[in-house]
Amino acid sequence: MVKQIRKSYQSDISDKEWQIIEPHIPKPKTIHEHYITPSIKDLKLVSEKIPL
Q: What is the pTM (predicted TM-score) of this model?
């Protein structure tokens, strides 16, 4: 019987497991690490530009 070799994708395993398998690849960032919360000042600037 021949065992099938299944491809492993990064989404199939945890981040820790992925770092063990492929240590040269940087740790994937989560969505929250990319998201920057706008400040009140930024929101005021945007609202001033929108005609009502």
A: 0.27
